[in-house]
């Protein structure tokens, strides 16, 4: 047969020649790899495997302690937990759906961190196939790719987004479940909207309603998705071309219908923004204009727009925290260079909007998606965060996917030499493998608290908050000298940061230097007079310095601010015991036990007061109960009690 070569197949000790087309195996492999059913599953599996090291991570002392392992409120799915989930704005977020997934985690895994990370990883892996289907539809609208280049473009876009090291923070940090969950519903909302745009009649109405419903789920997972209505407008302009770039092209009956269908999305988006502002403001997280005035905000905006683009292209030096400088000015080189670069990029995409409308659409989407965290309304200690790139990164992934599709199309048409096509394909594969390697490495920095902050200091040696957090961890582990060294470094880096004196005072108290502890805590409380923990620690330090009368005032303030603060009642009980008021002391210890039954210090106090009041029976009972919670502590005080009795 002309044009057909044979292949040799080994059979036993001899070789038999079978006539068959040489492309059969290649075509079979290609059909399997590019099968519409296999591609989404493969993308999810690759994403899961790249971030698999997250399963060996624990919880970290960076919001995890507040949200998860020291928070009993979410643990379960009964009515008390559900009511709390829908009413709390803990740490400035209203995220009831995310809390429901954490409640389910507790039901399934209790407090095993591997289970929590597994849930987050599965949710994130599900983002990959959904984004693949979104990319397919967008490329089909924007390009003339044939089936092969079209799928390749969507695969490249999905992989670039899903296995990029910037995703490691959202996946590896248990608290950031809200990122991957809201991102999943955000992508599903867009996918449903794109399907509605291709439908007619009742089906179109149902698809739009489904899109609105999915958007609600995204908002109650994390409110950063409030930008979606504007993102849909960008999609309507390009690539859907249902609206024009100019305002006069956005009027008339056909376009009026496009705007009307956006009303539910805009209403929900505005509501989500209002709730978010309330949640942040109620936790006093909003950065005041007195500290960073309006003149500083443009510099923060330009820096953010440049930062995430730069880190997307060159993901090096990633850190858990990029600290906000003490002073922000557009004239500083740190902010001036990004401002010039962003201005140049914006001018370029606007000038090329007719020849390359996708460029302007991607850039506009990028700025819109960054809107809630770009610095106009700022909260927190950070200038930028890796996790903030989650939604904005979708646009850049589409650019990479389109480039891969263009190369594939040119190779198929013969306009690019096969050698060049193979070279570009090889470089793309190496780049993807490099991203996967960096992501697998990056996700491991969330293994434990010490790894997290030591890595952060390696990445950002001048990060005062990172050093302070490492110092807190070292102090909790008993390494007081190393902790104090980190705190002193914080003072040198940020002399304006009074918060470090709370940690220094705590370390001084652990070291037994109570006069210095009192000095540092009082210095801190002059700036933050309502910090309950600092008030309690100051009361404890005064009590240990044999100044019980002075200890009363900060402890009373702590209880007034936080009536359920257990240790404040315990310390108050010891104050009254030292002042010779046993009835008040017993009242405070009993109140602490009611709030938290397994508080060893409260049982120690009860035993002491009963013993000093000549009541050996109740004292022995309290000592026996103490032994159930802390046998070592009960053993240390037991002989003294026995001798007294």
Strand order of the largest sheet: 1-2
Average pLDDT score:
89
Strand content: under 5%
Spans of at least 5 consecutive residues with low confidence: 1-22
- What is the molecular shape? elongated
Cα distance spanning the termini: 109 Å
Strand element count: 4
Taking the sheet with the most strands, its summary is:
2 strands, antiparallel
The secondary-structure class comes to mainly alpha
What percent of residues adopt helix (DSSP H or I)? 55-70%
Number of helices in the DSSP assignment: 30
- Report the radius of gyration as a whole number of Å: 30 Å
Could you characterize the architecture of this molecule?
The strands form two sheets. Strands 1-2 form a two-stranded antiparallel sheet. Strands 3-4 form a two-stranded antiparallel sheet. Helix 11 packs antiparallel against helix 16. The relative contact order is 0.07. It starts with 5 loop residues before the first strand and ends with a helix. The chain has a domain at 34-444. The chain has helices at residues 24-33, 38-50, 64-69, 79-87, 96-109, 113-142, 147-162, 168-172, 177-197, 201-219, 228-237, 253-260, 263-282, 297-313, 333-351, 357-370, 393-413, 418-442, 449-459, 464-476, 480-493, 500-511, 514-527, 532-544, 548-561, 566-578, 582-595, 600-612, 616-629, 631-644; strands at residues 6-11, 14-19, 322-323, 382-384. It has 645 residues and is an all-alpha fold.
What is this structure's SSE topology?
Layout: E1 6-11, E2 14-19, H1 24-33, H2 38-50, H3 64-69, H4 79-87, H5 96-109, H6 113-142, H7 147-162, H8 168-172, H9 177-197, H10 201-219, H11 228-237, H12 253-260, H13 263-282, H14 297-313, E3 322-323, H15 333-351, H16 357-370, E4 382-384, H17 393-413, H18 418-442, H19 449-459, H20 464-476, H21 480-493, H22 500-511, H23 514-527, H24 532-544, H25 548-561, H26 566-578, H27 582-595, H28 600-612, H29 616-629, H30 631-644
Antiparallel strand pairs: 1-2, 3-4
Helix pairs in contact: 2-6, 2-7, 4-5, 5-6, 6-7, 6-9, 7-17, 9-10, 10-13, 11-16, 14-15, 16-17, 17-18, 19-20, 20-21, 20-22, 21-22, 22-23, 22-24, 23-24, 24-25, 24-26, 25-26, 26-27, 26-28, 27-28, 28-29, 29-30
């Amino acid at each position: 047969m002309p044009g057909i070569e044979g292949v040799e197949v080994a059979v036993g000790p001899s070789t038999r020649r079978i006539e068959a087309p040489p492309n059969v195996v290649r075509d079979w492999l290609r059909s399997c790899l590019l099968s519409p059913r296999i591609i989404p599953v493969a993308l999810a599996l690759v994403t899961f495997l790249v971030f698999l090291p997250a399963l060996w991570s624990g919880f970290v002392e960076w919001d995890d302690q507040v949200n998860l392992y020291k928070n009993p409120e979410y643990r379960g799915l009964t009515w008390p937990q559900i009511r709390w989930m829908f009413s709390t704005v803990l740490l400035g977020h209203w995220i009831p759906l995310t809390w429901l997934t954490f409640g389910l985690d507790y039901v399934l895994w209790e407090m095993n961190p591997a289970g929590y990370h597994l849930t987050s990883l599965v949710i994130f892996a599900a983002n990959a196939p959904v984004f693949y289907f979104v990319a397919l539809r967008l490329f089909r609208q924007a390009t003339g790719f044939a089936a092969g280049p079209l799928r390749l473009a969507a695969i490249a876009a999905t992989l670039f987004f899903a296995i990029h090291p910037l995703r490691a923070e959202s996946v590896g940090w248990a608290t950031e479940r809200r990122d991957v969950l809201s991102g999943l519903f955000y992508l599903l909302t867009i996918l449903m909207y794109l399907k509605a745009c291709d439908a007619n009649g009742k089906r179109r109405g149902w698809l739009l309603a489904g899109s609105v419903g999915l958007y609600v789920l995204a908002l109650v997972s994390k409110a950063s998705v409030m930008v979606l209505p504007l993102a849909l407008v960008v999609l309507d302009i390009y690539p859907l071309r249902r609206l024009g770039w100019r305002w006069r092209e956005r009027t008339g009956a056909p376009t009026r219908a496009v705007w009307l269908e956006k009303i539910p999305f805009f209403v929900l988006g505005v509501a989500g923004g209002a709730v978010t502002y309330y949640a942040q403001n109620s936790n006093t997280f909003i950065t005041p204009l007195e500290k960073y005035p309006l003149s500083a905000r443009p510099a923060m905006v330009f820096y953010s727009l440049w930062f995430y683009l730069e880190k997307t292209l060159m993901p090096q030096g990633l850190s858990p925290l990029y600290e906000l400088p003490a002073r922000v000015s557009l004239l500083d080189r740190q902010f001036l260079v990004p401002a010039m670069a962003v201005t140049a990029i914006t001018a370029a995409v606007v000038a090329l909007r007719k020849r390359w409308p996708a460029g302007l659409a991607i850039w506009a989407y990028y700025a819109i998606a960054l809107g809630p965290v770009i610095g106009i309304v700022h909260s927190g200690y950070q200038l930028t965060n890796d996790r903030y790139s989650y939604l904005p990164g979708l646009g850049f992934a589409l650019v990479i996917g389109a480039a891969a599709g263009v190369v594939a199309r040119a190779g198929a048409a013969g306009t690019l030499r096969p050698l060049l096509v193979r070279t570009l394909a090889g470089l793309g594969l190496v780049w993807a493998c490099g991203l996967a390697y960096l992501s697998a490495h990056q996700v491991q920095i969330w293994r434990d608290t010490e790894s997290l902050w030591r890595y952060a200091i390696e990445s950002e040696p001048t990060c005062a908050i990172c050093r302070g957090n490492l110092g807190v961890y070292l102090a909790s582990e008993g390494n007081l000298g190393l902790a104090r060294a980190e705190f002193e470094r914080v003072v040198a880096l940020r002399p304006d940061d009074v918060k470090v004196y709370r940690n220094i005072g705590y370390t001084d108290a652990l070291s037994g230097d109570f006069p210095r502890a009192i000095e540092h805590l009082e210095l801190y409380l002059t700036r933050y007079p309502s910090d309950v923990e600092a008030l309690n620690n100051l009361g404890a330090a005064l009590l240990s310095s044999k100044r019980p009368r002075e200890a009363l005032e900060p402890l009373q303030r702590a209880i007034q601010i936080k009536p359920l603060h257990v240790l404040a009642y315990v310390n108050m009980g010891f104050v009254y015991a030292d002042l010779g008021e046993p009835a008040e002391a017993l009242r405070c210890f009993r109140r602490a036990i009611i709030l938290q039954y397994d508080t060893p210090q409260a049982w120690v106090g009860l035993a002491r007061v009963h013993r000093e009041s000549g009541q050996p029976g109740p004292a022995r009972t309290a000592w026996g109960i103490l032994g159930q919670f802390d046998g070592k502590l009960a053993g240390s005080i037991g002989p003294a009690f026995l001798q007294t009795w």
